[in-house]
Design brief:
With 811 residues, the protein is mostly helical. The chain has 29 helices and seven strands. A hairpin with a 5-residue loop joins β6 and β7. α3 runs parallel beside α5, α12 runs parallel beside α15 and α22 packs parallel to α24. The radius of gyration is 44 Å and the shape is globular. The C terminus is likely disordered.
């Protein structure tokens, strides 16, 4: 199907209106990728080769050739690649129209790039065609199609540097003559082609010649830049600074002696040379080279050392013209610094103080104290560039970049560029002693003189003014929080939160007319990114604004810009993962089935769950020596059911503090075991009708008896622990007698609970219980305000009362 469609499209070009269908045919071929198979491309290749031989159809053939080169298979290119280069060389040597020669240069650049990927084609092209192509392209220097020829020359030097070696000197002289050009496209091509001079010719053993050529070219570019500064800053430098200036330099044209041509040529040359050095540092090179970092930083200190404030008081023409060109020169210098940071990365940490100071210095002198709301501020391009380089520096070196010491200064600059300006009206009062207008004019001029232009409801407003500076500044502040947020002062976090939260609330309240420059979606997204960074970055002395951020991100999903609303949705999901973690926290309620059991150090095994405790307690005849089973705390279990309340103690001197447990039929049914019979191994807590309030238990020195007293008149009962020497009731004596009959090795389990018929008040104070062996154990304690005696206090609060492993003494 693809071959049939390609054939139909090619046939349509032979019609009378074929030229008008050319662009439509190429677009359809690119969309359907019709020429990937060799069968589909065969007819197109034959038509192209025929078209390139005739002057009338040459332009059509070149357009089709560019499409085929991008889509054809490897076999097709290997078969016809050399033929295409030969045909293109013939076209460049012919006297065709500039449009045809320009198109031929574009196609040649693409064909040469593809030819370098196939060794079979590359060998023949390098030995036969490249030297002749370079000579033909250099001959187009004075013609209109020279930018396209320079693009093809760049492709030849990049993909076949060895055959371009004999023409290296001529190429260098052509590029030096173009250093003063101000055409954007030609200037960019010069900057990208100049670093390729170091790779022209042979590399020698291990690429030694490549490394030497690169270092020599770098010295030449640096020396030429210092020469430009010598002419531009000749009256501004004090002479106290010393810079490492290379002796070598490029052979550049002579600088004009008169202004304004002199300043214009110097600023343009400085921009192009900075672009060459930037490409030289950042482009890949076939050999390992040593970047002269101290020399480059020395040049940057000199270039950024002169600012507009130093030139403001000078009234000469040269200084005024230099002040007008200074922001562009500083932007070019910052581009070199950015390329150096990206290439060297952490190797620049020893020079961190210099780099940070250069960026802070640039932000300092470009600050404008006064600005008109809705209008662009001065030096906005330079400030945006400084913020961008500062962001790159923070991302590369992090806290090692030394920006934490300048955090407050950076914050003030960011707030200046991101805070919306208030629209104010200034009143002008008449000066004393000024000539008063006639009386007739006084009668006509009723009101207050506001300004020379008078009151007006119309003013020029740009809703996108300063949006680039604002977005770059917000990016810097976000990066500062992410990199050095935990180690800076808490006041920094406070000021950031006090800035971003009210501003976002103000924007959300008036989405139809947000303050300038936040009508730009990029600035609003920067604010939301800053808020999320404030939530994620934790400071030990300042809390994150998580609660406010959740509401703000929720409302931000209604933003009319899709990118902003989608980011708010992602940020809200991030906040939700913080508020609702995937794993339970330490403060979550304890479930009885998951509560671990803790026994004495001498125990051989632990009860895995509450159900195991119950099953072990019912086995009367089974006994284990020295085993101690502890049931989970009823308070911990009740907290998960939501039925525990703190109640005040009845008497601070004689009775402990208690925990009042409200009646819960469902939970009490789980604890009450009606099928169990009274026995020496288990103490049932299902209550007794004969018990009354105020009964006491003489448990000896081991067991604290908890009874649930069911009464028709009273709704709760109190269980108190008294001293061993106090009197005991008959019921208590009977219980004590029953406990003495328990075998020594029998396990005794104490289960705290409540009956379904009423309430039970369980002591919560810490009580020392003397044991038979004279060792004291701590009873479960939940007393508020008690000192933390050990790290196990929280664990003991969730455990049941300790049960001794022997029967109490009769004494």
């Amino acid at each position: 199907m693809a071959a049939h469609m390609a054939s139909v499209l090619l046939t349509s070009l032979s019609e009378k209106e074929g030229k008008t269908l050319l662009s439509w045919t190429i677009e359809a071929a690119n969309e359907h990728q019709l020429l990937q198979s060799e069968q589909s491309a065969q007819d197109w290749v034959s038509h192209i080769n025929t078209s390139l031989g005739a002057a009338k159809t040459r332009l059509e053939g070149l357009c089709l050739l560019g499409t085929v080169v991008r889509q054809c298979s490897a076999d097709t290119f290997i078969q016809h690649g050399t033929t295409w280069i030969r045909l293109l060389a013939q076209v460049l040597q012919a006297y065709d129209s500039p449009l045809t020669l320009q198109m031929a240069s574009h196609v040649l650049a693409a064909v040469v790039q593809q030819a370098a990927q196939y060794p079979e084609v590359a060998r023949e092209v390098a030995s036969t065609h490249v030297p002749a192509l370079v000579q033909s392209l250099l001959g187009a220097q004075d013609h209109q199609w020279f930018p396209a020829a320079l693009e093809a020359l760049h492709s030849c030097m990049k993909n076949f540097p060895g055959p371009c070696g004999p023409s290296k000197g001529k190429v260098e002289s052509v590029l030096c003559g173009l250093m003063d050009t101000n055409q954007p496209r030609l200037s960019l091509l010069v900057q990208q082609t100049c670093p390729l001079l170091a790779g022209c010719g042979g590399g020698g053993a291990g690429g030694v010649k490549y490394a030497e050529a690169w270092a020599h070219l770098c010295d030449q570019v640096l020396g030429s830049l210092h020469q430009v500064l010598d002419h531009a800053y000749q009256d501004m430098e004090t002479g106290l600074q010393t810079y490492n200036t290379p002796q070598a330099s490029l052979h550049l044209p002579t600088v004009p002696e008169s202004d304004p041509a002199r300043t214009f040529v110097l600023s343009t040359r400085f921009h192009n040379l900075c672009g060459c050095l930037q490409q030289l540092v950042s482009q890949e090179f076939p050999s390992v080279v040593r970047i002269p970092t101290p020399d480059i930083l020395s040049f940057l200190c000199r270039a950024l050392g002169v600012n507009a404030k130093m030139l403001f008081g000078k009234a000469s023409m040269e200084h005024v013209l230099l002040m007008s060109a200074l922001p562009k020169m500083h932007c070019s210098a910052l581009s070199i610094l950015e390329a150096l940071i990206i290439s060297c990365r952490s190797y620049l940490v020893p020079h961190a103080s210099i780099i940070s100071q250069l960026l802070i210095q640039t932000l300092g002198w470009t600050t404008s104290e006064e600005g008109v709301p809705g209008r662009q501020r001065p030096h906005s391009t330079l400030r945006s560039r400084a913020y961008t380089v500062l962001t790159v520096w923070l991302n590369v070196c992090g806290a090692a970049g030394g920006v934490d010491s300048h955090a407050d200064i950076i914050l003030q600059h960011v707030l200046t560029d991101t805070t919306p300006q208030a629209d104010t009206t200034k009143l002008k009062a008449s000066r004393p002693g000024s000539q008063e207008p006639p009386r007739r004019q006084k009668k006509k001029q009723r009101g207050v003189d506001v300004s020379d232009q008078g009151l007006s409801g119309h003013r020029k407003v740009d809703s996108q003014a300063n949006s680039d500076v604002c977005s770059a500044a917000l990016g810097v502040l976000k990066t500062v929080l992410e990199v050095v947020g935990p180690i800076i002062k808490p006041s920094f976090h406070k000021e950031v939160q006090e800035f971003v939260i009210p501003l976002l609330l103000k924007i959300q309240q008036n989405q139809s007319d947000p303050p300038i420059p936040y009508s730009c979606a990029k600035c609003r997204k920067g604010l939301y990114q800053l808020l999320l960074a404030a939530v994620l970055v934790l400071h030990p002395r300042w809390p994150p604004p998580t609660q406010c951020a959740v509401k703000i991100f929720s409302v931000g999903q209604q933003d009319y810009d899709l990118q902003v609303s989608s980011y708010c949705r992602e940020a809200l999901l991030t906040c939700m993962s913080i508020i609702h973690p995937r794993a339970p926290t330490l403060q979550s309620p304890v479930i009885i089935s998951d509560t671990p059991t803790i026994s004495k150090p001498s125990t051989n095994h632990q009860a895995p769950s509450f159900q195991v405790l119950r099953s072990n307690a019912t086995q009367k005849n089974d006994s284990t020596n020295g085993n101690l089973f502890t049931a989970p705390s009823f308070k911990a279990a009740s907290q998960s059911e939501g039925m525990v309340k703190d109640c005040p103690s009845q008497s601070e001197s004689t009775s402990p503090k208690s925990i009042q447990m409200e009646r819960s039929g469902t939970f009490s049914e789980k604890l009450t075991r009606e099928e169990d019979k009274a026995g020496p191994s288990v103490i049932r807590l299902d209550g007794s009708s004969n018990s009354s309030e105020g009964e006491e238990s003489s448990s000896g020195d081991s067991v604290e008896l908890l009874e649930d007293i069911q009464s028709s008149k009273q709704d709760s009962s109190t269980l108190e622990t008294r001293d061993l020497n106090d009197g005991v009731s008959n019921t208590e004596k009977k219980l004590a007698t029953d406990m003495e009959t328990v075998p020594e090795n029998e396990d005794v389990v104490l289960i705290q609970g409540c009956t379904s018929a009423g309430r039970a008040v369980v002591p919560a104070d810490t009580t020392d219980i003397p044991t038979a062996g004279g060792v004291k154990r701590k009873h479960e304690s939940d007393v508020e305000g008690e000192e933390d005696d050990s790290q196990d206090t929280d664990i003991q609060a969730m455990l049941a009362s300790f049960v001794p492993d022997s029967t109490p003494d009769e004494n």
